[in-house]
Write a structure and sequence with these properties.
mainly alpha, two-stranded antiparallel ribbon, 6 helices, 2 strands, 6% strand, flat
Length: 160
């Protein structure tokens, strides 16, 4: 029986880097390229989810109108930001919408999305959908709380 070695973070880092190393390269007509990750790191997916929820919370508090289509566009831009070599400083809802429009108008979005492994992208969007479900439940609870607090205020006003 072989002698077992103690696990080290150096070994974990090496194995992890090797696991997430494979990339595809998308080459565009203008002699530019984007590297696309073929396997998504769970830690990056978590950062993406956190940023998605932060942006949506910001959009809600600033009364920024959005719908399911814009959320899908936002999720797509976040996937491109987190899982490709495309450099962007987008941080706000408006900046991500600008990124979406620029990439769509330049005919880049579809080419980049086509390079992703379909199973990875599908799992990512399922996880984002689950995170949005939790987000919606939290909003519903806050609305119920707000409604019950204001219902008491309305009753007090009516009896005065």
């Amino acid at each position: 029986m072989a002698q077992l070695k103690n696990l080290t973070l150096t070994q974990v880092k090496k194995e992890t880097n090797e696991k997430y190393k494979p990339k595809k390269q998308v080459v565009f007509d203008n002699n530019t390229k984007v590297d696309v990750e073929t396997v998504f790191r769970p830690s990056r997916k978590n950062k993406l989810k956190a940023e998605l929820l932060r942006i949506l919370t910001e959009a809600l508090t600033t009364k920024q109108p959005f719908d399911a289509g814009l959320i899908l566009g936002l999720e797509t831009m976040l996937a491109i930001k987190y899982f490709t070599s495309l450099k962007t400083d987008a941080e706000t809802f408006e900046q991500y919408m600008e990124m979406l429009h620029l990439l769509n108008d330049g005919d880049y979005t579809e080419k980049i999305l086509d390079a992703f492994e379909i199973d990875e992208l599908h799992m990512l969007f399922e996880e984002l959908d689950a995170a949005l479900g939790v987000f919606n439940q939290a909003i519903d609870k806050e609305l119920e709380k707000w409604n019950s607090e204001h219902a008491d205020t309305e009753k007090d006003t009516e009896t005065a």
